[in-house]
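Journal club prep, shared notes

We agreed each person brings one worked example of a sequence with its structure written out as tokens. Mine is Germin-like protein. I'm keeping it raw so we can talk through how to read the token line rather than staring at a rendered picture. Sequence first:
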Amino acid sequence: MKKMVINTLACIALSAMSFFLASASDPSPLQDFCVAVNDTKTTVFVNGKVCKDPKVATANDFFFSGLRVPGNTSNKVGSMVTPANVAQIPGLNTLGISLARVDYAPYGLNPPHTHPRATEILTVLEGTLYVGFVTSNPDNRLISKVLYKGDVFVFPEGLIHFQLNVGKTKAVAIAALSSQNPGVITIANAVFGSKPAISADVLTKAFQVDKKVVDYLQSQF
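Then the structure, token by token:
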């Protein structure tokens, strides 16, 4: 009988632990909102940003007008991302969501990149985009589609993805992301433009190319 009770308690404990692990996620807000404070000299460091007293929050803490302005696409890749995350909208703190406007010149590219903390859902407002993402190892499968005005496409969290304007006119898209601070890692910039630079021995073997090719690519970033 005693052994049966012990076994039962062990099963309950394991079930509780399994439930805890399965349900672990980012904590939900414990108040209506938590407006971010940028002055870290007088505050403690937390996962995210510390909160302003809700009593002194204003409408401007929840407002950003930057997405109405087209981004300057006069650059090497022909695109510009204008973020609207917690850095621009303090009221997004703890709310787990953000936006970005992406402008594309004709044939402009938002180069392969990843968001380490967010899934992205992209809506085309204007133009035609060829978009895609690559699944994780070992398959590395490319999932891609051509999008038109009004179309929507999802890029799963952490996967490398891109958008290319395949039209002869400019294109505009709005991206919604499942984090107040999704982060972005542009693959080429990270690999060939890191500071300090990644050793050429590493990159020549990883990409199976001559050192001269690696030196050239690093010089571009």
